[in-house]
Design a protein that fits this description.
The protein has about 270 residues and is α/β, with parallel strands linked by helices. Helices cover about 35% and strands about 15% of the residues. The protein is globular and about 50 Å long. Bound molecules: D-galactaro-1,5-lactone.
Length: about 270
């Protein structure tokens, strides 16, 4: 059984993945504090990602990393810089020094949040981050690319939509990914023999709502099990399509795009 370090293990996605991937890996679980409810094949290695020495200890001897650890919404520059920019740098550099060859990087849809919902984008589009948080995810993808080309560390970057048991609003009908589909993509990222540097979108089978062309994930063998369209009726019954923030409703990143900029629909960058 492979030993895999999971950073950010106490977060929502980490909690889902531990359940979905139970028994498949020996997990070294890392977060700021101890992970309390350890199952068989799980150990806890608390580490602050901005502390290089702590990260060095955490990666020692592992065969792969699932890098979820981050401040996962918009935050101050200092917060994003420490947790996401320095933290991800430390992770890649420590992995390189320890000879770890495979990393699954939790990127985010907010790396491309300023694409309009009328656009269909694939993995090769130029980034359009909607927040400092989104910028940190673009940074992480760039770092993954650099460490692939320079040092041969293989990365699957998953631009995650929203991992949840069900899509909770209209936007999530486009970007939702079920826990088991997220687990499938993660396992593919750890196991696929021919990954060097790849970007895929972390979404279930979201036809006809999706804005993303996920053909790169399908090319790598991803076969999503769940469909957001099964929840369309429920979402239309419970949520207004118009959230009252036209800018948020116009762009893929939703409310992240209007954080700190007001949500003025007359702004000239509304395409
Ligand atoms: C993310 O990247 C966030 O981490 C998560 O909390 C959700 O807000 C998600 O994006 C989303 O866009 O719904």
């Amino acid at each position: 059984m492979k030993t895999v370090l999971m950073t950010g293990a106490k977060g929502g996605i980490g909690t889902f993945l531990r359940k979905e991937l139970k028994g498949k890996y020996a997990f070294r679980l890392s977060d700021l504090g101890d992970v309390a409810d350890l199952a068989a094949n799980e150990t806890s290695v608390p580490a602050d990602l901005s502390d290089f020495e702590a990260v060095r200890q955490a990666v020692k001897g592992v065969e792969g990393v699932i890098h979820l650890g981050a401040f996962s919404v918009e935050g101050s520059w200092q917060t994003i810089q420490e947790a996401n920019i320095i933290g991800t740098y430390n992770l890649y550099q420590a992995a390189h020094e320890a000879g770890v060859k495979r990393i699954v990087f939790a990127s985010s849809n907010h790396a491309v949040g300023f694409y309009a919902r009328s656009d269909t984008i694939d993995h090769s589009v130029y980034p359009k981050p909607d927040t400092r948080y989104g910028v940190s995810k673009v940074f992480g993808e760039s770092l993954a690319s650099l460490y692939a080309d320079k040092y041969g560390i293989e990365s699957l970057c998953i631009r995650i939509g929203n991992v949840a048991d069900r899509p909770v609003d209209h936007r999530r009908l486009a970007i939702w990914i079920s826990p088991r589909d997220m687990a499938q993509l993660t396992e593919l990222g750890l196991e696929h023999p021919a990954i060097r540097f790849e970007i895929v979108y972390g979404m279930s089978d979201n036809v006809p709502h999706a804005w993303w062309d996920n053909s790169n994930a399908y090319r790598l063998g991803y076969v999503p099990m769940d469909r957001s369209d099964d929840f369309t009726e429920e979402v239309f019954k419970n949520c207004p399509e118009d959230t009252g923030d036209p800018r948020a409703d116009h762009y893929q990143g939703g409310s992240f795009v209007s954080t700190e900029s007001g949500g003025d629909p007359t702004k000239p960058d509304m395409e």
